Amino acid sequence: MVLDKSALGAGAQLLEVELEARQSARPELIPAAPAELDPAGDAAVMLRVAAGDEESFNYLVQKYHRPMIHFLFRMVRNQGVAEEMAQEVFLRIYRSRESYRAEAKFTTWLYRIATNLAVNHARDTRHERSAQTIYLDSPDPETGTTPDVADDEPSVEQRLLRDERMAAIRQHVMALPERQRMAVLMHKYQGMDYKQIGEVLKLSESATKSLLFRAYQTLRDKLKDFV
What we know:
Helices cover 63% and strands 0% of the residues. The chain is built from ten helices and no strands. The longest helix is centred in the first third of the chain and has 23 residues, at 54-76. The radius of gyration is 20 Å and the shape is elongated.
């Protein structure tokens, strides 16, 4: 299998150079996989990436590239920026391959890198952003479906109420503290549990539950007229 240039764009050239250079790496630098590790799991695949296995890296890119774009799009609200950031995530994954330890889930490591990039982007472009930055209830860019909206064709009144609700959610999600906003997005859209979110944000499971409780309580209070 060759590196998926259509998925990674220009970033693939950099990865190819690094992949070729890795072929001559010393064997003692290759991390050993724990005996109980599932050989088909992401952790074991990532360890093979650290050993210079190009096919394993392509497998992870193909598996997570589209979900990563969706996750980042929810944060930055710009398709082009989300795609560029997804490329950067996988570049960083590959460049940091030797630091990966199988004790941590691969997805935890992946989303931690993505979240850090998104936070940095938000801080760097704060003065450029407007009210449309984050849409908790916005339609999916591929399917066009909207969460929590019935499949039946809505009436004009229902559409107006939905649009008003979406605008209110957008406003109040944007107003959440940064960590609460990230936690809500990971919990609601990525289906990540408390433990996984805590590992990404470097919080204990109880602290993560508290963080999400405060975030959802704030949203319930602000949106009580729409419930």
